[in-house]
Amino acid sequence: MRIFIDSANLAEIRRAVSYGIIDGVTTNPSLIAKEGHDHHDQIRAICGILDGDISAEVVSTDVDGMIAEGRELAKIHDSVVVKIPLIRDGIKAVGALASEGIRTNVTLCFSPLQAILAAKAGAYLISPFIGRLDDISLDGIQLIREIVTIYDNYGYATQVLAASARSPLHVKEAALAGAHVSTLPYKVFDKMFSHPLTDIGLEKFLADYRRTLVAHA
Ligand code: G3P
Questions:
Q1: Tens of pLDDT along 107-165?
Q2: Are the C-beta atoms of 74 and 81 separated by less than 8 Å?
Q3: Which of 13, 110, 183, 201 is least buried, going by the fewest C-beta atoms within 10 A?
């Protein structure tokens, strides 16, 4: 499974990348706005931190605007994957950008039917939002399972990127469901490392060892 960090904060991305196991970054207009810098400059800076897919989202909602923005975002760096919202004009833009060799990440996906349309348009990635479905008492992971099954049934090349993760459990369930990628807020990524029995076990190993050192001193 590839793991991406869902952030536009350079310090947070650098901290995650320092573990050597991060495969990419996803941003969205809200995450970019939080950093308060020029959109393209922030994406360019992120591309300088790691080699991997860097998702940068358009803010146009008409097909011509999305295509034009997508071309400009793609020029920033070869790592850029253009994020396009799953709306009617977005599906048209995905097809046009794909025909120009520009990779797209179709975002704000909340149904398997939407995911079929994105795959048929030639999306590189599809981003079903697990957490936002769970937030309204629907089953986000079930959406991942359904999309993976449908894509496998028809051999669609589009990769499933499990997005809007709220907990490490989402990562586990998305992996069991066969998602190709999980994108995580830093705090969810950090929780993946932790287990109380690991801490207890290590403490006992070291205490026992130190005791033998004293005994043989
Ligand atoms: O960036 C796409 C997605 O991961 C957003 O997640 O937490 O805003 O629902 P969230």
A1: 999 999 999 999 999 999 999 999 999 999 999 999 999 999 999 999 999 999 999 99
A2: no
A3: 201
pTM to 2 decimal places: 0.96
Give the pairing type, strands 181-184 and 2-6.
parallel
Q: Distance, CA 76 to ligand 1 centroid (Å)?
A: 23
The CA–CA distances, whole Å, from 12 to 6, 75, 168 equal 10, 25, 18
Nearest CA to ligand 1 atom 4: 164
Structure-token match 């097809």, residue found: 95
Q: Which atom of ligand 1 is nearest to the CA of 132?
A: 9
Pick the catalytic residue: 83, 92, 172, 204?
A: 83
Q: Is the dihedral of CA 124, 66, 174, 44 positive or negative?
A: positive
